[in-house]
Amino acid sequence: MTQSRILQTQENRITRGFGNGHSGVDLGWQTTQTDGILAHSQGTVTFCQTGYGNDQGAGGNASYGNCVKIKHPNGYSTLYAHLNTVAVQNGQSVEKGQQIGTMGNTGNSYGSHLHFEVRDTSDTCIDPAPYLSADLPDLKTETEMEEPDMTEAEARKIAQEEISKYFMELEKEEASPWAQVPVKTIVDRGIMNGDTNGNFRPQDAITREEVAAALVNALGIDKTVSDWAKEAFEKASAVGFLDGTMPRESLTREQFAVILDKLGLIPSAADKVSG
Questions:
Q1: Do residues 102 and 27 lie in contact, with contact meaning Cβ atoms separated by under 8 Å?
Q2: How far apart, in whole angstroms, are the C-alpha atoms of residue 186 and residue 191?
Q3: Is 85 domain-assigned?
Q4: Element (H, E) at 69
Q5: Total domains in the fold of the chain
Q6: Which of 76-80, 81-85, 123-127, 180-184 has the lowest mean pLDDT?
Q7: In terms of residue numbers, what domain contains 225?
Q8: Is 27 in the same domain as 133?
Q9: Residues 115, 193 within the same domain
Q10: Taking the CB of residue 200, how many other CB atoms lie within 10 A of it?
């Protein structure tokens, strides 16, 4: 037998179905006449009446006896009638499975049972039988409700922040192990400097003007070499300063630092003092 989620015992004995002038289903007791009544789903109590005894033949709201009505996040409502006791009050928030009362025989009732109704968004009663052990249509809890779409400005701000983080991480990049000593030396000697934040950016390609400035600093001259000749490149390659491949490609800053070190253009601290 399908278990009911609205009775504490989970019993599901339907004694009267929906339709033919009956706005809900009646669930009879099996184990106890005062079975605990549980909220079908999360919601807010919108109607609650207490103080009723048995009143066979009563009409209107009085026919429900002690009862509770809960509105759920999807706009549907559930109603629990003929209760013996009520454990909630108007305006109270309840959770799925929370006890809201006990089964009883109040109002227009002929024995202890629960009259259970499900009402759609227009407050029209629908057959509750399919939902005795299942969620209501399109039901989402308040914590599951969709957040509003992100605005274009918010998306752009997040993207800019992520891009900034990416480049900040790049700026923290250290020189490769084989280049760390030369890089430290040329920075300490003031031959090459980093950006305004003091980051050397060892993996960045070096520009021609940076090469010229570094050579001027290393050689201690006041003007740059005017020509990049093929012969000079070949000589540099022959003695191991360059490997002779891709002469028109950019060098990284760390590669250039190693070249300066091989050329002997980085003065030692003693040389700098004596000079």
A1: no
A2: 5
A3: yes
A4: strand 66-71
A5: 2
A6: 180-184
A7: 173-274
A8: yes
A9: no
A10: 21
Position 255: which residue type? Q
Distance CA 36, CA 112 (A): 12
Distances from the Cα of 55 to the Cα of 66, 67, 102, 135, angstroms: 11, 14, 18, 33
Residue 210, phi-psi category: left (phi > 0), alpha (psi -120 to 50), beta (remainder): alpha
Would you call 180 exposed, middle or buried from its count of C-beta atoms within 10 A (0-12, 13-18, 19+)? Answer: middle
What's 20's domain CATH number? 2.70.70.10
Residues 6 or more apart whose CB falls under 8 angstroms from that of 169 comprise: none
* 261 to 137, 240, 257, 264: CA distances (angstroms): 75, 12, 6, 5
- 193 and 96 co-located in one domain: no
Q: Are residues 31 and 105 in the same domain?
A: yes
For residue 198, CA distances in Å to 102, 173, 190, 192, 260 come to 73, 12, 12, 11, 21
pLDDT digits (tens, 9 = 90+) for 137-192: 887 655 545 555 666 677 667 767 766 665 556 555 667 777 777 777 777 777 77
More confident residue, 61 or 211: 61
**43 within 8 A of 71, measured Cβ to Cβ:** yes
Show the beta-strand stretches assigned E in 105-225: 113-119, 125-126
Interval 25-42: pLDDT, tens: 999 988 889 999 999 999
How many angstroms separate the CA atoms of 265 and 275, rounded?
A: 14
